[in-house]
Amino acid sequence: MSHSSKGAIYMAAAANLLIAVAKFAGAAITGSAAMMSEGIHSLVDTGNQGLLLLGLKLSHQEPDVRHPLGYGKETYFWSFLVAVMIFGLGAGVSIWEGVDKILHPHALDIHVVASFGGFDIRTYHVVFSILIIAMVLEGAAFRTAYKTFRAQNPDKTIIKAVHSSKDPTVFVILFEDSAALCGLLVAFVGIAAAYLFDMPVLDGLASVMIGLILAVTAFFLAVECKGLLIGESANAQSREKIARMVAAIPGILGVNEIITLHHGPQNVIVCVSVDFDDQIGSPQVEAAVSRLETDIRAAIPEVSKVFIEAQNWRSHQRLLAPNRAETPV
């Protein structure tokens, strides 16, 4: 996890906390369901950033007897939990607030909050000011997350980069900030329409739309994090590097199988099964294994463990055959 990635999380957390306080104040002044939904959204996002930071801290624990491969997947678990939080708290409460407002509509409060130089500052002035300031802060947080994400994935489209990324913390923040900006726009339009047409039901509809935006965001985040939790291989470039390095080692006749697994954003496990020339002795085999592990670690710094199996190709295929036969079609 880079310092820039942590910076994106801290930036998002600070912005969301300030925005949440302002939104709740606006909701209290006007009684707006959309504003209340936005406040809950920002508060949930603040808690989510705390969970991401907790996951990062726990993922750096040293391996022990119970977890010999380390705690790298802590990052994936807490990122998945963030998706659940967005869906359960953010989306669920927003939709409930909106439906309640639609079923029991009441006019948004309009009164003078303060006066300066003969100009009356009314509740809607305060609410729209809060929303505009929130857009600026969320925009700054989104810009930080976007720059960090693009720096990690300069040559890919956003969708491909998210799908191939092994570090969920940055794209979680990116998705959250995107949803926040969309929610703010919906809240702005919904509250403005409710005031303009004197139809408080539009405020409730805006709250429901905000909840749906959060639900869709949570679903996509959960799907991406699920893949990482189950276990994803290293990228194609890394796998090709390993195959070339194996082929370059003298005494190796062929590669039976190469398995790579991300056990965290910067934690890759490599398992290689190779067929050695029967004419070489154990000292040469040991030297070849040591060289291969050294080459792999040097070429792919995120590799934490390398397991190399020496096995005849035909024997390897026979052992794989029962598993293939049991695989459902």
Automatic annotation (TrEMBL):
This is Cation transporter. Residues 10-226 form the Cation efflux protein transmembrane domain. It is found in: Membrane. GO terms for biological process: zinc ion transport. Keywords: Membrane, Transmembrane, Transmembrane helix, Transport. One of its GO terms (cellular component) is membrane. PANTHER family: HUEL-CATION TRANSPORTER, PROTON-COUPLED ZINC ANTIPORTER SLC30A9, MITOCHONDRIAL. The keyword Transmembrane applies. Gene3D superfamilies: Cation efflux protein transmembrane domain (1.20.1510.10), Cation efflux protein, cytoplasmic domain (3.30.70.1350). Pfam families: Cation_efflux. The chain crosses the membrane at residues 76-96, 126-146, 178-197, 204-223. InterPro entries: Cation_efflux, Cation_efflux_CTD_sf, Cation_efflux_TM, Cation_efflux_TMD_sf, SLC30A9. The lineage of its organism: Bacteria, Pseudomonadati, Pseudomonadota, Alphaproteobacteria, Rhodospirillales.
